[in-house]
Fold Hypoxanthine phosphoribosyltransferase.
Amino acid sequence: MVEVLDLKFKELITSEEIQARVDDISDKLNERFADKKPIFLGILNGSFLFIADIFKKLSIPCEVSFLKIHSYQNTESTGKMKELIGLNQPIEGRHVVILEDIVDTGRTLDFLMKTLEIHNPASISVATLLHKPEAMQVPIKLDYVGFEIQNQFVVGYGLDYNGYGRNSSSILIKVDD
Ligand code: XMP
Ligand code: MG
């Protein structure tokens, strides 16, 4: 059992299991984008270790850039407004690969893809380390998925609980006490 702030977690996916999936996804990306000069867009903060591990395994000509999605409450409606920060590179005509830590409801990715599409990239693909199929509310095609997990809160390998837990090398899942 691992404590992160006031919550208890247990190991769900080991560091070795993560690295094996990272290797597999990197192999597929190297093959798929060999002659495409893709641009990888890493979504901070949670994906920073996944981005780094994938990027080290890429042997093709490629670029990486980092984006943040800022969510805030609209003062007038209950809907969550989102803003994309850091897209300061032209992606028109480029093959874009989004690197995400986790796709939960799919709302973040839906917003991201709609925003990127406005800039007319040649293609948009998605690689996510984790996916919670039961939580998905917006149907989005995920091209590369590391692990499908149950609909429960997880931390580790970059993912956090109120800022903590990112430094666990394995993925930890919340346990009820
Ligand atoms: P949606 O619901 O938009 O969520 O697909 C995507 C973003 O929400 C965060 N998220 C999590 N963060 N443990 C975390 O540490 C989780 O279990 C979790 N589920 C969603 C994450 O930032 C993701 O990019
Ligand atoms: Mg995230």
In short: DSSP finds three helices and ten strands in the chain. Residues 36 and 95 are 7 Å apart (CA to CA). The beta strands are 2-4, 7-13, 39-44, 63-73, 80-85, 95-103, 123-131, 144-148, 154-155, 171-174.
